[in-house]
């Protein structure tokens, strides 16, 4: 009978240890959650401090912050360009009073009723689309002002130069021979 009693006691001890281990793991998980929450609050506070400093010192920041301010300004400009391209694709403008989107040509904002100024029209022949990024660039520009890539234009034979036309016709009809 001692064997069964001993076995029962060992099983009971093992169960108590397993229950204690589960409680410990649950407590550790709870503490890790609290730790992560506190770390996130600190990170948010640091972010707010940085935003406040940047807003209060847009031009007179310390030299040690120059690189960080340059990154912020560059990224902000990229964001503004992308947002404008999205609005152009969607065919909308922003209301100057409330910031709501309104379709091109709308006279009034549907969200706040403010008058929407008519956008200055850009003639289609004055602008051309960049083949790399799709931005509208002034006609005749050699490089895109958004992505910096060379503007690609199809080589067109206008037919204005008779020598050009004659040479092009000869090239089409004369088979090439190797020297």
What would you note in describing this structure?
The chain is mostly helical and 179 residues long. The protein has three domains: 14-55; 67-121, no CATH class; 122-152, no CATH class. The protein is 51% helix and 7% strand. The chain has three helices and four strands, in the order H-H-E-E-E-E-H. The strands form two sheets. Strands 1-2 form a two-stranded antiparallel sheet. A two-stranded antiparallel ribbon has the order 3-4. The longest helix is centred in the N-terminal third of the chain and has 55 residues, at 2-56.
What would a concise description of this structure say?
The chain is mainly alpha-helical.
Task: Offer a few descriptive terms.
51% helix, 7% strand, two-stranded antiparallel sheet, single chain, elongated, mainly alpha, 4 strands, 179 residues, 3 domains, 3 helices, disordered C terminus
> How many β-strand stretches?
4
Strand-pairing-aware structural class: mainly alpha
User: Could you name the ranges where pLDDT drops below 50 across 5 or more consecutive residues?
Assistant: 161-179
User: Kindly, what is the distance between the CA atoms of the first and last residues, rounded to a whole number of angstroms?
Assistant: 110 Å
Strand arrangement, major sheet = 1-2
Q: Per the principal axes of the C-alpha atoms, what is the gross shape?
A: elongated
């Amino acid at each position: 009978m001692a064997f069964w009693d001993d076995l029962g006691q060992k099983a009971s001890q093992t169960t108590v240890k397993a229950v204690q281990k589960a409680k410990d793991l649950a407590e550790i998980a709870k503490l890790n959650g609290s730790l992560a929450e506190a770390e996130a609050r600190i990170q948010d506070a640091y972010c707010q401090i940085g935003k406040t400093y940047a807003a209060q010192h847009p031009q007179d920041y310390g030299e040690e912050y120059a690189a960080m301010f340059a990154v912020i300004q560059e990224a902000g400009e990229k964001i503004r360009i992308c947002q404008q391209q999205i609005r152009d694709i969607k065919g909308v403008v922003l209301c100057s009073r409330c910031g709501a989107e309104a379709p091109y040509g709308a006279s009034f904002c549907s969200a706040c009723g403010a008058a929407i100024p008519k956008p200055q029209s850009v003639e289609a022949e004055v602008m051309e689309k960049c083949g790399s990024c799709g931005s509208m660039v002034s006609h005749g520009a050699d490089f895109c002002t958004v992505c910096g890539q060379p503007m690609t234009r199809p080589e067109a034979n206008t037919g204005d130069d008779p020598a050009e036309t004659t040479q092009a016709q000869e090239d089409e009809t004369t088979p090439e021979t190797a020297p």
